[in-house]
Structures are given as C-alpha cells and as structure tokens.
Amino acid sequence: xxxxxxxxKGLRVLDLTRVLAGPTCxxxxxxxxxxxxxxxxxxxxxxxxxxxxxxxxxxxxxxxxLGVNRNKQSVTLDIAKPEGQAVIHRLLPHCDILVxxxxxxxxxxxxxxxxxxxxxxPRLIYCSITGFGQTGPYAxxxxxxxxxxAMGGVMxxxxxxxxxxxxxxxxxxxxxxxxxxxxxxxxxxxxxxxTGEGQHIDIGMLxxxxxxxxxxxxxxLATGENPPRLGNQHPNISPYQEFPxxxxxxxxxxxxxxxxERFCRAxxxxxxxxxxxxxxxxxxxxxxxxxxxxxxxxxxxxxTAEWVExxxxxxxxxxxxxxxxxxxxxxxxxxxxxxxxxxxGSGAEIEVIANPVKLSATPPDYRSPxxxxxxxxxxxxxxxxGMGEAEIAAxxxxxxx
Length: 401
Prior knowledge:
The chain is of the alpha/beta class. It is built from 17 helices and 11 strands. Helices cover 36% and strands 14% of the residues. The strands form 3 sheets. Strands 3-2-1-4-5-6 form a 6-stranded parallel beta sheet, sandwiched between helices. Strands 7-8-9 form a 3-stranded antiparallel beta sheet, covered by helices on one side. It has a two-stranded antiparallel sheet with strand order 10-11. The mean pLDDT is 96.
C-alpha cells in the first residue's frame, strides 16, 4: 500500500464491519487517507465476498465486495476465540478509530464493547452502526436495508399512486448510515483534537433514514397528513417529473414561475400563462393532473434528444432517463473521473466507482485495490505488532487467523 497524501493521513482505523453500511464508512475514511485494517473471518471473510453473481471477470471477488473495500488491508482473525480477542487488544493502542456494525451488545461478549475499552483507550473514537441504535425498544433487532426503507417511510412515498409501495433501487438506508457514521467520526476527531478525548458514536439506520426524509418529512410535520405516492412527480413543485417523448422519456424540472413562463413562451403554449390554474407553482401543484395532461402532447412532439437540446438552450432543467450503460458512457461522468482502474491482487485489472468528494488540496486517493481475503494478515501482525513466525504459525494452527 502506497503512502497517503489525504487529509486523514496518519490515522489508523480498526474496521470490524461487514456488508455495506460499515464498509461504506470505512472506505470513505480510507479514501481520505486513513489506514484501514479490515478484520475478516478466517476462510469466509466479509459476507459480501459471496454476494454474487456477478463476480469481477478473472477474479473470485464479487462486484459487491469490490465496491466498498478499497484502501483497506485484510486481516483474517477469529474474534470469537480468546486468542483473536487478544490480538484486537494488542492492535487497539495503535488505532485512532474503531468502527463496528455488530448487533447491540455482541462485541461486549468478547470484551470489546465501548464501555469496556474507553477507560484503557481514552482517545479512541468508537463508532457503532446498527439497525436501530444502542437504545430504544428496537435496539436488539437486526437491521436490513429493505426493512429500514419500509419502517422508515420512504417506501410509502415511492411508487405509482395506484401501485404498491416500492423501495429505492439501491440500498440507500445502508449507504446513508455509513455516510452519517463518517460525518460523526470526523466531528469526533475535531473534538479529540481540541480536548484529547475520544467518544462513542451511535448510528442507527432507522434514525438516519428518518433524518433524510427531508421535505417529505417536513410536509408531514406541517400538515399531519401522510404524503401520497406520486410516481415521478414532485410533492411541492409542478411540472417536475418524467414525460413521454416521441422516442422515450425525459425529466422536465421546472423549479419556479419565471422558468415556467419561459417554457410556455418558447414552446408554443403561452396561453397557459393566462389560465389561473397554471399561473403559480402553488396552483400547478394543486392541479398537477391537469398540468400533466396538458403538457404531455407538447412533450411527445419531439424526441428526447431534441428536447434536451431545446430545453438546455432555454436554460430549463431537463435530462434523459439513462440506463447505467448510458451513465458510465456519459462524457460528463467520464470527464469527472467517476470510474477508476486499479490492479487487483488476483492479477486482473478492476474498475471501481470513484469517490465523489473533490478536494482541491488533498483529494481522495486510490492507494490499494479491494484486498484478497487475508492478503495483509502477516504484514500487519509482523509490522505493527512485531509478531514472529512461530507466534503467527501457532495462531494459524488454532484457526485464529
């Protein structure tokens, strides 16, 4: 692993996470320069190594695992065994941050809970990411993305008005929990810089899910009414939705009244500006079905490409509804460097989705590809803990490594 130049250079993370929420958090820390030591179960590893197909071509690694585990060192260690726990205790004095996503209380069984560690390691920042947080009646429950999307309300907001509730097509509950965890860690680092004190960060996926209900959550709090499912329409703006075109679909995003006026005058419907049902955004929201029915024949008069060109000329928000093939072929996405090629430990070259944080002085770096299971076990135990060959061999013989 090459030396980092990132803003978190010099910090070391003990990563006791698996699947998605926790690894998202620790990959972000790794991208920003922290050294991340990922602890994995011997032989099995992170569950997502088996979340396949697809596997990356010419490797035995799942695409899922490769997506959230770069810039990490893989150390196999069975922490259910006393010898494995002893290794963790030897690693902790060398680490600034511990991130875990075990069930509430699970690590305490191994002597690795926050309350057990804080006195001995007062500078340690300890981040727990769970489904429901460390307190409350649901705290013991396991957390899964689809379950959190259902319980957190977003499924009630997503889908066609007369259809069934729908989850988002990517695991947003996991991803947001990981990112909020990273934000909490960065805040705790700043606090430690000022005081020398570490602290515990308690991230519950349901909490973070409720937090990002955003305008829809506020709409409920303001009215006491559950917002209805609107398909691709916006609850507070109209027209702001998909429309059919001559050859497909387009998103039309008209965010204010001057933009709607510009649209009407440029595309042959200036008479709508005299109709009180169209004159203000509030009225258009009130009459959203009429707005959709009135504009659909207009939008089907041109192809998607023709609309994009014409609407951009008028500085009106719009965009095609891309497949992922379209996304990764998009010249803007390519210009922004959103795919990075990395040499993998298998010998194959892999591609990963880049970190989107663009820092002018200390940008994210891509020091090492997602590791092969146990790839760095001996290097970490020898280099960091000073273990000799005999001690490592004894741990292997006992199935600890």
